[in-house]
Amino acid sequence: MSWIELKLDLPYQKLELISGYLFAQGCEGINMTDDEILIYFSQFRWSEEIKLAILDYIQELVPGFGSRNIRQVSVSDRDWNKNWKDFFKPIRITRNFVVKPPWEDYHVRPGDIIVTINPQMAFGTGHHESTQLIAQSLEKYIKPGMRILDIGTGSGILAIFAEKLAAESVLAIDNDPVALKNAFENARLNNVSDNVKFFVAQPENLHPSEYDIVLANINLNVLLRYAELFPDFLNEGGKLILSGILRSDEKIMLKAFEKRGFHLLEKKSKKNWLSLVFELRIKNDGASESNNIIIKDRA
User: Fold this and answer.
1) Which range (124-133, 136-145, 153-162, 287-296) has the least confidence?
2) Model's pTM, two decimal places?
3) Which domains does the chain have, with CATH numbers?
4) The dihedral of CA 189, 193, 194, 195: what is its sign?
């Protein structure tokens, strides 16, 4: 598989201005030099519309920036993985949760939960703020024996962490088959394949069920599109943990989810990123009470 690399003629000091928008558009990795910012998108999710949107956004913030300041090239998996081996070191993303690549040794401390990730995309290594925010909430809310649904699992990092927190079962879905291939590999690396199941699917492909926690680390537009479906996958009193959204998105998110029976329990932010934890107070009568995992159509 190839990746799209955009080379932006911008000094790295400008990254803080644009990083939130880039990740919201689906960016899956960022590298920097002194005079260039390199951003990466999977070929599967890339479109020229994204490139034009990024150009328009930067032009509003950086006078004089134009199409001549963006160059697009294709990057192979081989080049991508070499770059990540240079960058990806063990990182502690919560009090107990440590993420490490398979080629790095790590001295385990008492209480540490180690998740080994073989990186295929930057968004699934634990370095991004939205991943860290959701991990903190999982550490707080997961109890032994819970059933978890992970929507937009990516590398599988949060699904694997949920299992290591003693969830009874985890169903993890994504619409990107390349991401799920990596998620399968990561589950095997962490010996959780029996309790974590991955499927190429989207929420509309699932029959209603009742999970204790649903988590989704996706962008604003996708979360809003699925807002009316989320109650179908939670028991009454179940928790919905969301991120991939910016702090400026808070009002529109609260309006969309509170009118669907959700009550805000907690919000956290890190840099420009926001996570919201909701509790389902009102269960729709039409939702099924089946506890079976059923996929209507695999993508």
Assistant:
1) 287-296
2) 0.77
3) 2-85 (3.30.70.1170), 90-280 (3.40.50.150)
4) positive
